[in-house]
Design goal:
The chain is mainly α and 63 residues long. The protein has one domain (2-62). It has two helices and no strands. 0% of the residues are buried.
Length: 63
């Protein structure tokens, strides 16, 4: 909602930049999508590595 209100304010102040932002936003989103996917994958791998290192301490804690 806030981003929409900011866009409306930009439309009132300088409408060519607002229209350009409206056109470029989906293209930038598509360009950044692979980086988001890589970030999710790297986060998953780091969680897996942390779980592997934390597993022995969890086993020893139960004993």
């Amino acid at each position: 909602m806030l981003s929409f209100l900011l866009w409306c304010l930009l439309l009132v102040i300088c409408w060519p930049i607002a229209i350009l932002a409206l056109i470029l936003y989906p293209l930038v989103w598509l360009l950044l999508l692979p980086f988001r996917i890589v970030g999710i994958a790297v986060g998953g791998v780091l969680e897996l590595i942390w779980a592997l290192f934390a597993f022995p301490s969890r086993v020893l804690r139960r004993i």
